Structures are given as structure tokens and as C-alpha cells.
Amino acid sequence: IKPCCSVKRYPPLPCPHHGVVMFGRLCLFEARALSQRRDFRTCAEHVEWQKRVVASSMRLPSAAQVTHLAAVPFLAEVDPLSSRYVVRAVPLSESVQHTPSASLVDVTWPISTDPVVEQSIRTLSGWGTFRLGKFYEALDALTADVAYRHTDGLNRGLALVTASHAHSITIARTPPGKDVRIRCYITSAGSASVEVRTDALTVGGEGEKLVNVCYTTMVAVDKATGKVAKGAVPRLERDVGGDEDAEKERVTLANLHKEIRTTRSRESIKFRTPLSRPPTQAEMEAIHALHRAHTVASEQPAGPKRLPDTVSQHTHFNSFVVFPEQRNVQGTLFGGELMAQGYELAYFAAHYFMRGAPFVPIGLDEAAFIQPVAIGDLVTFRARVVHAEASIFRVFVTVEVVDRMDTAKRTTRANHLRFVFVAHPDSDLSVLPETYPEILMHVNAQRIHAVERPTEDLLQECHAYLRSRVHGR
User: Fold this and answer.
1) Which of 21, 91, 99, 326 has the most CB atoms within 10 Å of its CB?
2) What is the pTM (predicted TM-score) of this model?
3) Residue 125 in contact with residue 359, Cβ under 8 Å?
4) What are the Cα distances from residue 273, in Å, to 196, 269, 276, 402, 467?
5) In 3D, which of 1, 18, 22, 2 has the Cα closest to residue 10?
């Protein structure tokens, strides 16, 4: 990569961060890192990734059998309706250890035949039969079940914690009257971490149909020190007799996801990351244009056009104390509870932002678990609509812990989540960030929006549904 500025105009200087020669704004270290960048650069690349994800979905192994809730202890502990579900897994005594099928769990929600189950996961919008908040709550428990099955963690006394959920996409609508299966399985294993893929599938006369996907990273830590336990995770073995091409593709995708995490960490604009960089000049010019348009609109004579909304107008809070029944096996707040409550507040923010107009929740960009939340902690959820363009908008939820001994002290951020929603196709949405932290959230969401969008088929399906809702009023 050639420096964008001439050496004559900007003479070589030592980079204060890396101690190597820099030209203009790029040092040689940064230029080399940029040349090795692995991430989605265009929407076309992301669409191709989605096709690969769909094609590499794992089928239910032929050896899988209906089993007891003992196969999914985490789900059984946190879901009071779990006894109504149908659980399938390959008996550990009959499987080759440490393969994807050996750790797989498959749980069916009998929506078509059990009205209690159907009522518990119903959506408000009517778009789908399985509420996304419930999906994330269930997958948080099931991914732990899968990780512990792969490592035999409960018998070995290991602690496996969720680092993040990411790349959650809706592929198709969940039609009413069909059962839903959630299938979790290992796609990659390092010395101290695993990637778990979760597929949501509808089940009907035509067989299974993939409707949602999410990828979860879990890390093994030492219970005594809390440090990463290297070498604690067994190597992932190949399934003999399975779909070899799909299995190789899943491993390739897992490696790509790891590279994307590394790239985004290196280019992060978040304050708390080791390498925090400001927005680019082009990104700040876009923010400037937003503020200029807001100023021009505010100085026009009063008319029917509404002024652009600000992020502060669409910021909402929810606070609570963590009680013992909300704890997980580690003795801290169950991640699924956090995911469900974060989704509910994000849904409230979306409803408020749309002023009663219909919308559809379609996914989760990321849920990052920075530190555990303890029993008795004072927790505050803050949801902000941070980005809106055309008919797609994003809600960023932060989870903060308040110091019980000094409530005036600055809160500690424990986790953050970013949800994606789709509005009516005729919507011309926008939201104005005012403070610098809001600008960073907006820019981060804009970067994702520029390359990660729902497929054209899904977007058309969403828009058709939303048109029918408006015309049916």
C-alpha cells in the first residue's frame, strides 16, 4: 500500500504507537495490517457469505435420538417450559468423541400442538411465530450445553463463558402453525475457545427450512484465577460419514469469523478497546452533513415535515437488581436473561421510534459480554436508536453495573448488544447523533450497515408484510 501523501509533504516520522516509520497518517505497521484486512468490504461479499452459511447447515445426525433433559442441563435450569420440548442428541456412548455430531443438541418447540408453548414465544407483530428475544435466550443456554458436552466441562470442573454472539441473521419468516427446532453444534475449536453455530429451523410437511442463524464464541477460563485456560478445549475431530464438504465449509467460515473479529478489534472506535481509533475523515464529513441538514430544516418555516430525530430523543432505560434465581452455573447473571431483557428494551425503543407504525425485527449484529454481572448487582440497560437509513434501523443496548457503595460513581459497562429492525419501504428514516459517544455508536453502526444487510428476498418479504399491515388498518 502506498502512502496517500507524498514523502516531501509529510517527511518520515517515528510512529508513537508502533515505533516504526510513518508517512502522513499511516505507519508501515498500519499499512501492512490494512493490506491484510479480512472483513466484508461490500454487500455482495456479505450476500455470498449468507449463501455459504445456508449451504453449510448441518443435518440432524442419523444416530440422534430423543433423549432426556439431562442432555441440556443449562436449558432445563433456566426455562420452566423445557419439559414440553423434544430434545434430540447422539448418545455419548455411541459417538466418536469430540466431533460436531457428538456435541450437537437439537430441541423442538411443539408450536403446532402445544398452545402453552405457542403462547410463550408468540410475537406482537405477527411477522413470525418465534420471538427473537426467546430465540436468543434459548441459544445462550443451548450453546453452553454444547460447549460443555464437547469439553466434558461439568465433570472436569471447567468454566466456559460466553464471549460474544455475532453474525445473527434472519433468512426467512417463521410461518404460523409450524414447529421450530433450534440446533446447536461446534464448528471450530481452539486450545481455549470454541465457535458454536445455532440454527433455527421450521418443521413441516416439506421438511426443514433454515430461518435464522447465530454464531457464538465461548472461552474456557480457570475458575480460580479467571484467566484463559489454554489447552483445556479438546481438538475438534472430523465426523466420519457426514457431509464432508459442508463440514469443511463450516471450518472455513469459522476461520473467517475469527479474522473478522481481529480486523474489527484492530479498527475499533470504541473507547475501552486497547487500539481505539477516531472515525475517518469521510465518516466525519457524513456526520457534518447530517448536522447541516438538521440545522437547515430547523430554520425553515413551520410545515408538515418533521425535524430529524436525535439519538437522545430515542434513548430509554430499564434498571433492576439481579436476584439468585437469575444466576447461571457460574453464579452470575444468566446470559440468556440479559439477552431477553436487552431485546425487550430494544423492541420498546423501536416501537417508540416508529410511533406506532409496523416494523420487523430481523437480527443481531453483535452481543459482546465484557464482564460478568454478579448476584445483587444494580444493573441498568440503556437502549439507543443510533442509526437509521432508508427502511433499516439499529438499536444499541448497553448493560451497565452501578456501584452499590457509591451510586454517583461512573458505571461499569458489562455488555453491549446491537439489534436490527426493518420499517415500511416508504420510510425515510434518519437519526442525529449529538454527543461524541453517540457519534461513535452511529459510525460503528454505519460501517456494519454499509456491508451487512438482509438479502433482497428477505427485505422484499418484510416490505410486503409491512405494506399489508398498513393497508389492513
Assistant:
1) 99
2) 0.86
3) yes
4) 24, 8, 6, 21, 42
5) 22
